[in-house]
Amino acid sequence: MTNGSEELGLTKSTIQYDQTMKRLGSVFLLMMTCAVSLFAQTTDIVVKEKEGCDEKGWCWGADIDATKSKWTFFSDEVKAKSYASAEANYLWLLENVPYINKGLYVYGEKMYKALVKAEQKAKGDKVTYYEDQLLALYDYRAAYYPKSKNSMLNKKGLVYMPYIKDRGEMDWKNVYDFYNSVIEANGNKTYYPNIQFFFSSVAKLGKDIPVYRQKIENKEKKIPAIEQNIENFKKADQPTAEFEKQLEAVKAEIAEIEAERDASPYNEEWVLDEYDRISAILNYQLENAKNEKAAAPVRKVQSFADQTLNQIVQIDCDFVTQKLAPKFKADPTDGKLAEKMFGYMLKFKCREDNPELFLESAVAFYNYKPQQVTATLIATQYANEDKLAESEEWYTKALELSGDDVAKQAAVRMSQARLYYKQGKKSAAREAAKKAAELDQATAADAYSFIGDMYMGSGQEYIDPSDAVKTRFCYLAAYDMYAKAGNSKKMAAAKKQFPSKVDVFTLASKYKEGSSYSVGGWIGGTTTLRIRPE
């Protein structure tokens, strides 16, 4: 390390720190003011005009020699990990030449992270001070290097919640506003811990939702008894006015609670909107994760969001039909609402309970955001209802959305094939599988194995008590398909079902090993007669 302390006329870092802090009283007070506000908002910074800039992009200010001396001492101290003594020069540079170079903030970040860690370990009294200095550093860098603003918000978010969570009562609205700004700035690039911190603030702001729900449930519990009294008194030809008055009073109380709940900006709909927003980001990150190691922590955050949501809002099929469906019926063109309904009906398996609503929301969502997977699901639903013309129309849409991607096209056809088979439409299923094989060589093995499986499962249809050889033709045809697929394991299974030597010998007048014969039935075509291995 260069002898910067001697050049400055200082012999001990502690002496230098005290002297420099006296000269930098204003900047110190600024930092401590920031600490009091818990950094709910970004630091107020008046950006200074750059001075003394050289051709390499360094700006040394009005006193170039002094700045260079301070920078040399500061950078050398950081490199030597003498962080406590390095801070005084950092503060001088921040006060006088905050535009010197991005290196000021790179080194400063390293310095304050180390100081925070050391002070926490020592249980010192400057933890909060160092934490706030680091938070302010991110604001300063964003102010003087605007291109880094988004990434600085992202970085600041990683430490903001851990730093302020134990500093007394939290202002969750400010916490929400900060992390909302992080997400708005970074979108799909938002660090996953920041997403978790954000949804924690959403949960805190929406904490009264379960309280309202419990109040309503408690009131609703009174209704059956009152209604029973009304019924009993009517049967006894007794006046029911008092009970009817009680019933109206309870219903009025429920309506009042519901109105108060719905008037809050932090209601169920708001929570669901925020949940959907972060889920979309997390889903993007999962889809683009390089490996499982990268995906695992993102999946944990999604799990946290799911569990947190379930504690606040009770989402099930009843919620969809009672809360969302009326709004959707009022405006079927609301794409965002359709997307929400469609997603919830899939997640909570509501399509069987209300297939009509599922189709309506799916089609509305498709019109809002045309996607291959949505078109495929709509096609499947129509096929389940035996509306094959509509089903084929939507499969065609799914294929069109596949573009030139033969793998996607083949996936659509295989989806179609499996659905047709499930419905007992074997010929249609085979045709779809063959199209998949023709479209994509990589899908061919799966497609031909699928056809082979259908043939293997058709044994009952080919039983002929008078012809033991013909009874086995479906297995010969299955073997042919497995051979096309290169599926040796299933080929071996099919071979075990070939006609035996005895079967062929008994019907020698009709059959000869190696000759070609018509399979018949729905399978059709021809196959070569082979004998089961002994």
Percentage of residues in DSSP E strands: under 5%
Element string (H = helix, E = strand): HHHHHHHHHHHHHHHHHHHHHHHHHHEE
How far the N terminus sits from the C terminus, by CA atoms, comes to 86 Å
List how many beta strands DSSP finds: 2
Q: Which overall shape is indicated by the principal axes computed on the Cα atoms?
A: flat
Rg from C-alpha positions? 36 Å
Strand sequence of the main sheet, in spatial order?
A: 1-2
Structural class designation: mainly alpha
Tally of distinct domains: 4
Mean pLDDT across residues: 90
Summed up, the helix count is 26
Spans of 5+ residues with little confidence (pLDDT < 50)? 1-40
| Helical amount | 55-70%
Descriptive account of the structure:
The protein is an all-alpha fold and 534 residues long. The chain has 4 domains: 165 residues, no CATH class; 54 residues; 77 residues, Alpha Horseshoe (Serine Threonine Protein Phosphatase 5, Tetratricopeptide repeat); 78 residues, no CATH class. 70% of the residues lie in helices and 1% in strands. It is built from 26 helices and 2 strands. It has a two-stranded antiparallel ribbon. Helix 19 packs parallel to helix 21. The protein is flat.
